[in-house]
Amino acid sequence: MGVSSNHPVPIVSHRVKQFLRGLSLFILSLAASCLLVLSFPPYHYEWLAWIALVPLLVVSLTTRPAGAFFAGLLAGTVGLLLISTWIFEVPGFRFYHAMPLAAFYGLFPALWCAGVAWIHRRKPSSVLLAAPSLWVFLGFLQNHLGFLSFTWATLARSQYAHPALLQIAAFTGEYGVTFLVVMINAALAGILLRRAWKQAVISGGLIGLSLLWGTYRLTHPIPAPRTRVAVVQPSILLEERKMPQTRAAARKRLEMLTERAAAFRPELIVWPETSIRDLRRHPELVHWLNEIAARTRAALLVGASEFVKFGDGNLTGKGRIHLKVRQFNAAWFFNPAGDPFVPYHKRLLVPFGEYVPLASVVSWPAWLVPTSIHGLPGNTYRSFPLTGGHHVTPIICWENLFPAFVRKAVRHRADMVAHLVNDNWFGKTAAPSQHNMASVLRAVENRVPVVVASNTGPSEIIDPYGRVLAEAPGLFQPCMITAEVAVPKTRTLFTRWGEFFPFLCLLVVVVSSRLHARPNKKRRNPPRKRRKKGR
Question: Considering the entire predicted model, what is its pTM?
């Protein structure tokens, strides 16, 4: 008896294979997410970043671009949600706020996976350079999307505790460190799938050269004058900002910690973001701060809020112009001589947190965007002179996340960067530590010391090579820290030339995408001999 051609077993087998393939894609995507999460605080297994992308690369190199895209989207969305669980500490922030944001930023690893899959189908040997190049360029785009720009936990920042590796950032920015991390992931995936040991040796050699250069730079620092700086970490709670009595108690704590820091005779003492409320409309507070600077004989850089009334052109019922109260997030500078200085106003406001993007053209729903946001951005950088001949430039809050922004601030006559921040909203989570990682990279990129003054901690003093010289003992602990830092006058290649490295990576991606595998010149079947005519 013959076997029927309509046998159902092949169909069932095909469906089983599809299910198993989808399940493996799902598992590998979640594995990549978990490895990325463990690479960052509070877990600090930064070595996992060197293998975190291997599961995604296995998917990308063994499936079609569409399947790779969905794997990257899943991994990116879940990974960002797990890394940023602290965002739910913010009052009023819900899951329906977080999910669209996470899915949007998950598009970048999704595009990376699809791009790697497509390039691999055209030229498999080019993946070693194309994969890290594409990741770098997509990260650059994510950094320059206007109000949608957001780069929180980059692969380079996961390596903040390894200054020898970070020194390449003085040439390439943090993008160069990211390139190396992704390249090692690509080499490991190549070994797993096709035993590409030659590519592994090449990538290992590049890592070795980078570490040798970094070690040399750390052991042979650039000669530079030194100065002492101090940071006050007051741990002003949200409840203390509501009542006049509690605000007065917080000011006394600030003054006490400042006097304790002055005993070490620093040239600069830094207070964190919004240490003082509504400074412009209270001249008695300005007088008090001038007195502290004169008494301690140190320059004082103070984070403060400013409230200003603006007329919007509308009339009230009594015929008066309707006034709106708008807020500046500012950094005020006081020196012992009492000289007046124009304050720095924060330039990069947090979208939907400090201002509403496209408010004049988009009617955002009330459940998505609160209506009580009235922040104003500044329009210029500021640098303030210290007695030793140095200049300090303040940046506020999330401005430290953007390499190009800090680079321009350093070029604005700065020898030192003061990062004023208040992560009080996020409680005792990993957010402050994750935030500070970016300041380590900013120090190396521009070869300047970075002083992180955090309200609730951890405050840090970082030297020009990314080494943390002093750190506050913990979160929500009032304290002060001080350290002596070198202040080089030289400028790095990154400071002078900017973000050129992502465009080199784009060139690599373009060349890789245009390559085709060379056809085999040897023919499998030799041509038949022609028969002679007449036979």
Answer: 0.89
